[in-house]
Amino acid sequence: MIAQRFLQVVVTAALCLTSSVALAAGTIKIGGLFAVTGPAAFLGEPERNTAQMVVDGINRSGGIKGQKLELVAYDTAGDATKAVQLATKLIKNDKVVAIVGPSTTGESMAVVPVAEKEKVPLISCAAGSKITDPVKPYVFKTAQNDGLAVARIYEYLHRQKLNRVAILTVSDGFGASGREQLKALAGRYGIQIVVDDTYGPKDTDMTSQLTKIRASQAQAVICWGTNPGPAVVAKNAKQLGIKLPLYMSHGVSSKKFIELAGDAAEGIRLPSGRVIVSDVLPASDPQKKSLLAFVREYQRLFRLEGDHFGGHAWDGVMLIKGAIERGGATPEGIRDALEKTRDFHGIGGTFTFSPSDHAGLTKEAFVMVEIRNRDWTLLK
């Protein structure tokens, strides 16, 4: 009798162990590094929300080849040191097969060596060109390169016959990368930079820089940064009565900028992904179906419009999903399949990766938009 009960206990334990192993085998873990709090929360919060929304949608549809997808997401608070620690935790403790994020260029550059050393695919949500240039085997990105955004602005200025510009860039990773591209591409478009100035990420007044710009020969101003600095620039320019056309980077491509800048946002132009003007795109646009589905689902769940930044996470998760379907749920299989991705119509654009291109987009990923009556309009 005792022997029989012992046998039952052993069998029950074995069944439980088998069930546990089956459950583990049926779950694919991916990581998320998002600046949900801190100054870059306007990036990280929609990214985190969107990543979970997409994962939940995948699971409702049966997962990936019958396996559930699990998102293990951490808040970096926009801190590069914390991002490195959390990336290591995701890889070592949580055993993720790929990571989406971080939210900012500085964090992403700090995490790149971790992803490369551990050979775990990283799909950054940040825009800095240096994240993927030069190419690193395990690092990809979904945010459009800042060089592509610069090209869109310069093309538009060239058509407007404006060739003397003042640039005002934030002194962080995103601003430094943008400034480098603004200077590098100016000659190609016949642009002369007559003022080259910067501001700090925490600065709350830019009147001295703008006063210098007002006294220059500039025909337009390009501000390169992420909230809240560009909103301060917009307000200060209005207070100083500056009538020069003001252009912003894609780093403010969300309604949050309009809220922060208020009436000073009127007339500002910038390059953006198509998501913020998805409702006015022609039916022939290959991104439109994905864009509208994303915007509507985000609105339904969070009572806010899905934006450019959440779109980076949507693309990241969906790219990983496709890579797992084609290459299997291992870091190496995902990396190899990502590099073979062709014509993926996402939120940020149509992605085509290759061994020599881990950013995957062209300048066609951007459209020029203008803020009118506290909303986005599409420029021709």
TrEMBL record:
* UniProt-recorded name of the protein: Branched-chain amino acid ABC transporter, amino acid-binding protein (TC 3.A.1.4.1)
Name the keywords, alphabetized. Answer: Amino-acid transport, Signal, Transport
Pfam families attached here? Peripla_BP_6
Species of origin reads Trichlorobacter ammonificans
Tagged with keyword Transport = yes
* InterPro entries the record matches: BCAA_transport, Leu-bd, Leu_Ile_Val-bd, Peripla_BP_I
Q: Which family does it belong to?
A: Belongs to the leucine-binding protein family.
Q: Which domain of life is it from?
A: Bacteria
Output the PANTHER family linked to this UniProt entry: BLR7848 PROTEIN, LEUCINE-SPECIFIC-BINDING PROTEIN
What range does the record give for the signal peptide?
Answer: 1-24
Q: Which residues form the Leucine-binding protein domain?
A: 27-368
